[in-house]
Every structure is written in C-alpha cells, then in structure tokens.
Amino acid sequence: MKRFYSRMAFFVLMSFIFTMASAESVNTVNIVSPTDGQEVGARVVVKGTSEMADYESNVWVLVHLKLLGDQWWPQNKPVRDIKTGDWETLAYIGGEQDIGLEFEIAAATFGKDAEKEILKYHETGRRTGHYPPMSFPETTSAIDIVTVKKVSH
C-alpha cells in the first residue's frame, strides 16, 4: 500500500512539474509604443518586447481600421534584438480619408505556416501593387492590441 501511495505521489508531482514547464514555455509579446488612445499620423513606429519559448516563431504587427472587424494589413517584419527580445517596425495607418478614425495595432508571434501566409501576402502585394486585407492568421502567443486615433496624414 505504501508503494501505491509513493507511485501516486510521484505521478502527481511529475504532472505538476510538466504543467509548470508547459505554462512557462509560451511566447509573449507586448506593444510598448504607441500607447492606447495615442494620436498618430500616417505612419507610426511600433515598439515592443517579446519572449520566445519555441524559437521558431516570429513577431509580426498587423493593423486595421477598428470598424472593419477581421480585416487586417500585415506590416513589415519587425527588427528584433535576439538578446533582449525588444523589437520595432514602421506601421502604416490608413489613408487620408481615415483621419479621425480609430485603428487597432496588433502584435503577436506566428509559427512557420502563418508566417508563410504573411510573407506571401507581402510578395503578392509587391508584385501586383495591391494589398487587400486578410484574416488574422493563427498565432503562437496571445495578441497584444492598442487602439490609436489617426489625426493627420
């Protein structure tokens, strides 16, 4: 009977350790700038921090007009410092007709398949000159979103 309880305790302990290890091996991404409610122009430098647990995902920033729902425009791939996890990219915020409207800037990490989708979007856009919105790809982290208001172009 003592042996049974010892084994049971071992399995409970191992489950706990595995759960804790799994909980810590999650990618995180945060937008530091701009801040929620900030007024912006046609372009804004988006800065943030990240911690990569899987080392295969990459940070990307997507922007959309808040009124449009799940229609997003991927921005250029952020430059990321591997040592600190800090990153930044230039984001484009709508057209002149969008002055006075709110936009959401989202940052997340994306795995290889989602990143291929984003890279294909950019490749097609460069080739055709047309950048239609896309649905938000599957992420490997929580999505951090800030809302900004476009006040100039």
CATH architecture: Sandwich
Low-confidence stretches: 8-23
Structural class: alpha+beta
Q: What is the helix content?
A: 25-40%
Tell me the CATH superfamily: Immunoglobulins
Shape: globular
Tell me the strand percentage band: 25-35%
Mean pLDDT: 89
For the largest sheet, list the strands in their spatial order. 2-9-8-4-5
Distance between the termini: 76 Å
The CATH topology assignment is Immunoglobulin-like
What is Rg?
A: 20 Å
- Major beta sheet summary: 5 strands, mixed
What's the number of domains? 1
What's the CATH class label? Mainly Beta
**Number of helical runs?**
2
How are helices and strands ordered from N to C? HEEEEEEEEHE
Number of strands: 9
Signal peptide: 1-23
Keywords: Signal
How is this fold's topology laid out?
Elements: H1 2-24, E1 28-33, E2 39-40, E3 43-51, E4 58-65, E5 73-74, E6 79-80, E7 87-92, E8 102-110, H2 112-128, E9 144-150
Parallel strand pairs: 2-9
Antiparallel strand pairs: 1-3, 3-7, 4-5, 4-8, 6-7, 8-9
Q: Could you describe the 3D structure shown?
A:
It is a single chain. This protein has 153 residues and is α+β, with helices and mostly antiparallel strands. It has a single domain, classed as Immunoglobulins (Immunoglobulin-like, Sandwich), CATH 2.60.40.10. The chain is 26% helix and 33% strand. It contains two helices and nine strands, in the order H-E-E-E-E-E-E-E-E-H-E. A five-stranded mixed beta sheet has the order 2-9-8-4-5. The chain has a four-stranded antiparallel beta sheet with strand order 1-3-7-6, with no helix packed on it. Strand 4 (58-65) and strand 5 form a beta hairpin. The radius of gyration is 20 Å and the shape is globular. The model is unreliable at 8-23 (pLDDT under 50).
